[in-house]
């Protein structure tokens, strides 16, 4: 099986075991998330097959510090020496001062999920800590690194970030949205704060992105904006989304699903 899939010019999906890992190659190679422990093999192989030397990887942008997104971070960082950026809210987890699974989860379902994750992290798939190059705080007012716009989209986790590449009109949402089984709002049991996650959808909808890449499931590789506005409108209509400003102009055109996409 191929180690990667070209989604559009400049954007590739690397076949991680549990979540989507993305490589943006323009203007310089940047990785978004690193999948589970062990996924470093496929990441490094994909870089090689695409003709990039591992040391050419400029940055690793972390959407959030759940194990299926930072599991291979230490190994990829060691092989590439790329700079790592994540939220300041999740710095302690990534740098090993707190367990990844100690982040809050909503409701009984979330608490049970957390117990399962504890066992996984302690005994099955150990996380190796990594020092961040940069910890993004939404109060910094910077919001940009190497031309990439950083958008705080908390709620799924306390420090969830999304990354917008203006030249490609592409946004990478991590789990602030899901692409499985279809583009949708995050699941409550997976969230640290569901109401906040619904507010974050409004920030994503306002970007007017043409392409949207989720942490799980199939991306929207064209005309993503109407779908994002529809999701924001759905978020605003939920009881937890009460008081959210409705996103206007839903548009009428339907999105284009990823070609040759796979389910994950
Ligand atoms: Zn997650």
Describe this structure in words.
- This protein is an alpha/beta fold and 264 residues long.
- It has one domain (4-255): Metallo-beta-lactamase, Chain A (4-Layer Sandwich), CATH 3.60.15.
- 26% of the residues lie in helices and 21% in strands.
- It contains seven helices and 14 strands.
- It has helices at 40-49, 67-70, 73-80, 91-94, 107-124, 194-205, 225-237, and strands at 4-8, 11-15, 20-24, 30-32, 59-61, 83-87, 134-136, 144-145, 148-152, 161-165, 170-174, 211-214, 220-222, 256-257.
- The strands form three sheets. Strands 1-2-3-4-5-6-7 form a seven-stranded mixed sheet, covered by helices on one side.
- A hairpin with a 5-residue loop joins strand 3 and strand 4.
- The longest helix is centred in the middle third of the chain and has 18 residues, at 107-124.
- The chain is globular and about 50 Å long.
- It starts with a strand and ends in a 7-residue tail after the last strand.
- Zinc ion (ZN) binds at residues 64, 66, 156, 175.
Q: What is the string of SSEs from the N terminus onward?
A: EEEEHEHHEHHEEEEEHEEHE
Tell me the structural class.
alpha/beta
Helix content: 25-40%
CATH architecture field = 4-Layer Sandwich
The counted number of beta strands is 14
| Distance from first to last alpha carbon | 15 Å
- CATH hierarchy class name: Alpha Beta
Largest sheet: 7 strands, mixed
Radius of gyration: 17 Å
Small molecules bound in the structure, each named once: zinc ion
Low-confidence stretches: 248-264
Strand order in the largest sheet? 1-2-3-4-5-6-7
Arithmetic mean of pLDDT: 89
CATH superfamily: Ribonuclease Z/Hydroxyacylglutathione hydrolase-like
Strand content: 15-25%
